[in-house]
Amino acid sequence: MKKIQISQINFPPPDFKNSKVTKEKIVLKWLIDWINHSISTSDVKYGDFLPEKSKLAKYLGVSIGTIQNAIRQAEDMGYFESRQSVGTAIKDPHNQNKIFEKTFSKKDEATILIKKYIIDSKLKLENALPSTKELSKLLNIGENTIRLALEVLLREGIIEQITQSGAKVIRIYKKSFNKENCEKIQQRTNLAKITVQKMKEYIIKNFNVGDKILPNEEFAKLFNVSIRTVNEAAKILNEQNIILSRRGSYGTIYINDPRKIKKQKEREEKSLFMSKPQNNILQESYLYSWEKTLEALKKYIIQNHSAGDKIPSMKELATILNVSTNTIRHAISILCDEGYLITQRGKYGGVYILEMPQKDSETFRWLALNPTAINIDVK
């Protein structure tokens, strides 16, 4: 395997002038034509890696996004195979053997889950699918991943996209498919799950409860996987209460030995969940800046407004609380999600108070300090 350099491409760039198709489609055709030509002339071999997408985009005079979309479509057609942190390799579309060890991507998972949803919901041909946002909630997968999966189903002809007035997009179930493939979701290997196990073993061997562990970037290098995979694995370990990830310099803390976690539920509640400390210095130390702003905003609303009032603009609140408008926006978003505030558009638009926030919140927060700092025994 070798990496192809831009200077080694002996194939004329595509002509985008006076074309009725999108740049993405033109680049897709060019990629396939270039690969077929270069393979026939032995300029490249199957298994060789494409140049960096940024350099390829500059060579063709298009955006990186256009290159990414074209490569993704060519990959679905069997011309490429990609692996994060490794690259995109040229593949024989007529050979089913994989260049890399097969892992189950989130796009693959979303594609199969949508197919499974169609079966389980007993959708009939010409029935409309839920929106991207609704599918995201139903399947517990990010909207961007759902969009990528829908693109795959569009190319497979399983669904059809209809654009109506007002630019509203409706996708309908258009063609039947092999339902047996939907059951393979349970049989595929998810790289994140493998990484979870590796991280558990490494943490148990090298750290004690209460220690600050390696950053995700270092775990990615250690296990030779992408940072995205480590982030997914870390999320699972957080949900299992084995580690606690905090932003910035707080880092990630090893909070529970997975071997003992089932036996220590009562002890965990006492040692790891705390209501707000009475010590103001300690309280400040474990709050994010937006959490401090959230508390300050609640206090401001309680002291200066009543239910039904329109609160000041984000710019005014940022000045009052001496924080950025982005931090205010995040705090307002949380209060909207909690049902305290509501945003309105139009002539009488703004942010209104639906219900007054509670003065003394008993919400439990994760403590991301060394437990010894507050004399908590976690052994």
Automatic annotation (TrEMBL):
Annotated PROSITE patterns: HTH_GNTR (PS50949), HTH_RRF2_1 (PS01332)
One of the record's GO molecular function terms: DNA binding
Domain HTH gntR-type span(s) in chain numbering: 25-93, 104-172, 287-356
Alphabetical UniProt keywords: DNA-binding, Transcription, Transcription regulation
Any Pfam family the entry gives: GntR
BP term (GO), one: negative regulation of DNA-templated transcription
Presence of keyword Transcription regulation: yes
InterPro entries for the chain: Bact_HTH_transcr_reg, TR_Rrf2-type_CS, Tscrpt_reg_HTH_GntR, WH-like_DNA-bd_sf, WH_DNA-bd_sf
Annotated transmembrane regions: none
Xref: CDD domains: WHTH_GntR
Keyword set includes DNA-binding: yes
Name of the protein in its database record: GntR family transcriptional regulator
